[in-house]
Every structure is written in structure tokens, then in C-alpha cells.
Amino acid sequence: MPCSPITPLRRAAFVLTLALLAGCGGKPVPAHHAVDTHPDDACAVCGMYLDGSPGPRAEAWISGRAKPLVFDSTRDFFAYVLQPENQSALQELFVQDSTRIDWQQPAHAAASFIDARTASYVAWQPLAGSMGPTLAPFASRTVAEAFVREHGGAVLGFAEITPALVATLDYRCPAQATGAHSTLQCLAAPSPLLGLSSHPPAAPSPAHPRPHP
Questions:
Q1: Are 209 and 164 in contact (CB under 8 A)?
Q2: pLDDT-based confidence at 30, cuts 50/70/90?
Q3: b or e along 200-213 (b: 16 or more beta carbons within 10 Å of the residue's beta carbon)?
Q4: Residue 109: which of 32, 39, 184 has the closest Cα?
Q5: Beta partners for 49?
Q6: DSSP-derived pairing of the beta strands 132-133 and 128-129
Q7: pTM
């Protein structure tokens, strides 16, 4: 008995069936969002509690976990996410926007976090994090550049931060500041650091006001 020709309708039905079968075999991973942190949350790298630690914090969603890993500093965050053995399990990554927190007493609210991969970071800046020198994240590169002009440092994108940079991070600019892709301008901090505020500059847009401490 001769086979019936494959009509456009049959072809469409066949393609739809294959798509449905493929979908059943592996459901897409739902997108995660930043969550509130808590004073008794412990940093996934150093083990210190968040309560009482200064500077912006971070969260990393890892495949297979019901909750994100929490970090008490952006330095510890990058020390973890840049490790080759951790790369394949990384999902959504978040850091606190420096304009949405009191540096000395950071907020715990999920609203203070931004996408870590699109943030701008100020390295070699003078404000201490929980573990010493740290990176100050900003949602706006313009605000990050304004912070550098006032306090020193250099603005980096997520992809420009390397393990070597994190390992040698300090409060002062190195003789030559280099990122992963290019030579970066690194401005020396004012000396002495008179009038330095623990509150990084607020973003110019009224859509994201900085919460009062």
C-alpha cells in the first residue's frame, strides 16, 4: 500500500509533536529574582554573618539549590563566581546597588539588589567592605564615574573583573590598572580623605531613591 504524501498540515503537526516531546524531556529553568537577606545569613565564602558587616552584599543562584548563596562582600562574591569549577552551575547573580544602601548598615531588602552582570563596579575605592577592600557596584555607570571622580578608583564591567584583580584588590590604585580587555583609567583617591561619606552618591533618577538609614 503506497504511503500517503506528507501534506503541509501533517508536517506542522509532526513538528509540533516533536517540540512537545522535547519540552517534556527538560523543562526550562524558571528565572530567579533577588530575595531579602537576613542578619543571621552567613557568607558562602568566609562564613561570617551579615549582621554588622559594612558594604554591599551579593547573591548567587546555583542550579539545584532552593535558595541563593549569600555573600557579605562583593569581593567574596567574585572570589566564588570566578572560580572555574563554579561556572557551570551559576544562574542569576545579584549585587546591591551602592546608591540604595547605607554603606555602614546595608539594607536587607531584595529591592536593593541589581543584576550583577549588567552593573558597573568601582575597584580600588577607599570604602571598606566586610573583608577589607571591596568593589562598589552601581546600576548606573554615570553614577559610578561620579563616585570615582570624588573618591578615586576605576570603573569596571562584570567581564573585566578577573581572579587576579580580586586577589590583589586594595584601597589605592595600582601603578597601572588593567582589566580583562583593556587598560583602564584609575584615579587616585583624594589625600587626605577628608569629608569622605559612607553614603555613595545617589542615582540621578528619582525612580530609585536611596532609602533612609
A1: no
A2: low
A3: bbebeeeebebeee
A4: 39
A5: 42
A6: antiparallel
A7: 0.77
Model confidence pLDDT, tens digit, residues 98-115: 999 999 999 999 999 999
Residue entry with cell 503537526: 13
Cell of 26: 527538560
Write out the three cell numbers for 14. Answer: 509532526
- Please report the DSSP string for the chain in residue order: -PPPP--HHHHHHHHHHHHHHHHHHSPPPPPP------TT-B-TTT--BSTT--S--EEEEETT-SS-EEESSHHHHHHHHTSGGGGGGEEEEEEE-GGGSBTTB----GGGEEETTT-EEEES-S-EETTEE--EEES-HHHHHHHHHHH-BEEEEGGG--HHHHHT--SS--SS-B-SSSB---BPPPSS-TT--SSPPPPSSTTSPPPP-
Query: Cα 59 to chain center, whole Å?
Result: 8
